[in-house]
């Protein structure tokens, strides 16, 4: 009997069903504002870009200088990337002399106390976002708040899941529950295979030595100001990135939505002794939202998340509880330093094929032992992915990364062909061929290319990052936005500033009550 993937592909090849391969794509790209020496910008978020609190497409993430560009969701990743290009061009038309940093890892950072945490104004909602970031600074350090990535938001047509269920199951589960379970199954497959993305697209094998702030490490020295690992793909996604002891034991179960929500609900409600010792206030000023394992669920630093668009005042856990999973957010992608917008169209095409494969392939529940194995494979790849002869663990046995990768590409190939049949052309298959070349030759990977560029120019990560940032700036400034595009973004900026002013002028209760109310909203029909 054909396996599940083969049966589902056959079903989706039928003309009546091919439209269900649509869905939506969106990108969130983070990038630091820096000056012409490559140093972190000390200026506030540019008012010409609007309000970081209320602007739908241009905001900040953790640090005040860490811009985040958010595209609207689109049916074709080519349109998404074009929109990302447009927002970059607009930003450059309003940034003055500042540059957008081209790397995931920051360059030369100022002293910890001189890194400004993102500000969102005086409204209770704005203060909640700011105090949350104060807590992150307390728990992880401010340098961590200067790391940038690419988040890839992905959904499939909501008619797909009932179609598959009607051919596979006699279950009386609701459409919402079928969809949630299907996205969780895709997430489990992503956990199994996401090491491949780090090998193919990881682009942070080196970092500025000052980033570690004197912390112990096992990195090699490339130059006076640069540390690296010779076979690393993504130090950003290693244990040098956004991780700490409190989260080390946090492994939300992705076998069901209930399990996932329960795990995060406990994490945002269970005290953590070292954080309790710090308290929520110091000298009458809020320093973190809670003393629990997580202040809010977004603090859980995962490679992928089940998501739903939230309503005003609602928390992510609550939205998932009430209305189920709407899309998934891939969070492990490094900024590509060779692409002006941080990601290429072929990468987007491959991600679409990879994620559709994850959604359609068989996906058994994951045991705690298997989860640890998937985590170990990922960790091995980000630190040693290009090491000759590197093996990963699969079903209790070692297998070479190359061999497993080639098997996966062969299994994804019919998915790419199905997408090409729907879109016309061969872009998905072409992207797979480009990834096969990287598996055959580790020197063709972005991480290897970064190290070659570093070695060819004195080995300085900061100098390489600045050079790429200047190249990208010249690219965008050579073709400024059209008058229509500028008017669109200027109107968004004007409206967002007006919205923030209205929020701040409206009657508000005390911030203490607001925090208490927000935290209480985590309560679901789960224990």
Automatic annotation (TrEMBL):
| Domain of life of the source | Bacteria
Its Enzyme Commission number?
Answer: 6.3.2.2
UniProt keyword annotations, A-Z: ATP-binding, Glutathione biosynthesis, Ligase, Nucleotide-binding
Q: Which reaction does it catalyse?
A: L-cysteine + L-glutamate + ATP = gamma-L-glutamyl-L-cysteine + ADP + phosphate + H(+)
Q: Might you name a Gene Ontology BP term for this protein?
A: glutathione biosynthetic process
- Occurrences of domain Glutamate--cysteine ligase (ranges): 12-379
Q: Molecular function terms in GO for this entry? A: ATP binding; glutamate-cysteine ligase activity; metal ion binding
> ATP-binding: is it a keyword of this entry?
yes
Quote the SUPFAM superfamilies the UniProt record gives: Glutamine synthetase/guanido kinase
What cellular component terms from Gene Ontology apply here?
cytosol
Q: In which pathway does it act?
A: Sulfur metabolism; glutathione biosynthesis; glutathione from L-cysteine and L-glutamate: step 1/2
Main enzyme class: ligase
Please give the family membership noted in the entry: Belongs to the glutamate--cysteine ligase type 1 family. Type 1 subfamily.
Name recorded for this polypeptide: Glutamate--cysteine ligase
- Organism expressing this protein natively: Janthinobacterium psychrotolerans
Q: Which gene encodes it?
A: gshA
């Amino acid at each position: 009997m054909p396996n599940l993937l083969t049966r589902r592909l056959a079903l989706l090849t039928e003309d009546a069903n091919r439209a269900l391969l649509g869905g939506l794509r969106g990108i969130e790209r983070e990038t630091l504002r820096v000056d012409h020496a490559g140093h972190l910008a000390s200026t506030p978020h540019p008012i010409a870009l609007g309000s970081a609190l209320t602007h739908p497409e241009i905001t900040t993430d953790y640090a005040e200088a860490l811009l985040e560009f958010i595209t609207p969701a689109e049916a074709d990743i080519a349109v998404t990337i074009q929109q990302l290009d447009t927002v970059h061009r607009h930003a450059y038309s309003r940034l003055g002399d500042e540059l957008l940093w081209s790397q995931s890892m920051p360059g030369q950072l100022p002293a910890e106390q001189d890194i400004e945490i993102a500000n969102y104004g005086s409204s209770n909602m704005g203060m909640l976002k700011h105090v949350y970031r104060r807590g992150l600074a307390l728990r992880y350090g401010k340098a961590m708040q200067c790391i940038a990535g690419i988040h890839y938001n992905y959904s499939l047509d909501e008619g797909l899941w009932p179609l598959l269920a009607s051919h596979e199951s006699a279950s009386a589960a609701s459409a919402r529950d079928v969809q949630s379970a299907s996205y969780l199954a895709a997430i489990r497959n992503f956990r199994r295979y996401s090491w491949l993305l780090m090998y193919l697209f990881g682009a942070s094998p080196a970092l500025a030595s000052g980033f570690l702030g004197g912390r112990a490490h096992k990195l090699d020295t490339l130059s006076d100001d640069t540390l690296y690992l010779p076979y690393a793909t993504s130090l950003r996604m290693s244990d040098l990135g956004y991780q700490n002891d409190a989260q080390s034991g946090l492994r939300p179960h992705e076998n069901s939505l209930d399990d996932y929500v329960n795990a995060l609900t406990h994490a945002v409600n269970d005290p953590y002794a070292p954080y309790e010792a710090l308290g929520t206030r110091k000298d009458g000023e809020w320093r973190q939202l809670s003393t629990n394992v997580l202040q809010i669920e977004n603090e859980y630093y995962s490679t992928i998340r089940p998501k739903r668009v939230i309503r005003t005042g609602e928390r992510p856990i609550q939205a998932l509880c009430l209305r189920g999973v709407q899309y998934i957010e891939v969070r492990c992608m490094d900024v590509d330093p060779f692409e002006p917008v941080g990601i290429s169209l072929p990468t987007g095409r491959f991600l679409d094929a990879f994620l559709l494969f994850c959604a359609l392939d068989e996906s058994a529940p994951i045991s705690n032992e298997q989860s640890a194995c998937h985590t170990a494979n990922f960790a091995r790849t980000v630190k040693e992915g290009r090491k000759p002869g590197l093996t990963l663990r699969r079903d209790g046995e070692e297998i070479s990364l190359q061999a497993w990768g080639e098997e996966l590409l062969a299994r994804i190939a019919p998915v790419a062909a199905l997408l090409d049949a729907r879109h016309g052309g061969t872009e998905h298959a072409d992207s797979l061929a480009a990834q096969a070349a990287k598996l055959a030759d580790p020197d063709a990977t972005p991480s290897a290319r970064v190290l070659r560029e570093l070695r060819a120019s004195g080995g300085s990560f900061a100098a390489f990052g600045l050079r790429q940032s200047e190249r990208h700036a010249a690219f965008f400034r050579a073709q400024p936005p059209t008058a229509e595009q500028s008017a669109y973004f200027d109107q968004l900026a004007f409206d967002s500033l007006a919205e923030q002013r209205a929020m701040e002028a409206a009657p508000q209760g005390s911030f203490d009550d607001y925090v208490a109310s927000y935290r209480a909203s985590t309560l679901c029909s789960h224990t």
